[in-house]
Amino acid sequence: MRAKLIESFELAPEVRHFVFEAEGPDDSRFDFVPGQFVSFSARLAGKPITRAYSIASAPARGNRFELCLNRVSQGLFSNFLFEMKPGGEVEMQSPLGMFVMRQPPRESLFIATGTGVAPFRSMLQSHLAESGPAITLLFGVRHQSHLMYGAEFEQLALRFPHFRYWPTLSRPGADWGGRTGRVQRHIDEAVGGRRDIDVYLCGLKAMVDDVRQRLKGAGFDRKQVLYEQYD
Question: Which of 107, 149, 161, 163 could form a disulfide with 133 if both were Cys (CB 3.0 to 4.6 A apart)?
């Protein structure tokens, strides 16, 4: 299977949004479960490299899917994708991953840092509904310029009263009036003393490990906490 780049554009400094179209041996629909990832493969600098990327869009009628990626300064694959032009192609494996919403879904807290917000965008596009359970997205980045999809999440919060979008900045500017500090600082407020919700974590390993320990200490069962981490 191959993925053809349709378009890409900057979301934040050194972060881009990509729209790909899956091309397989037949014309069947490219299907996946929100929260899953795809693996891209290419031969770069004389060696085969494979990288996994969370899908940042909901399943669609066609074969298109979206990714949210940051450029790694010495990362061969991220630089390869950032330099790819529309029409370019890359080898791809079918979607995989178990970081998906439990069924039936119940009230949930999503905690993301950086591009870890990608699978949550897919989940929200797919699962947020008028009659669905309440969801809170606690999204932490350093600077306001890196609040990817912020306007989109704000619109969802206006449309669905049971969806809360809580961005927090660890390095806020003087004009920032929202939450500050790391996501860990706002967990108690987001949970509100409850222990009957599911918590989903996606971001750097240090954040995921720390939050898991905090939730365990607060009395959460490990089965209530689902996570995906990256370095």
Answer: 107
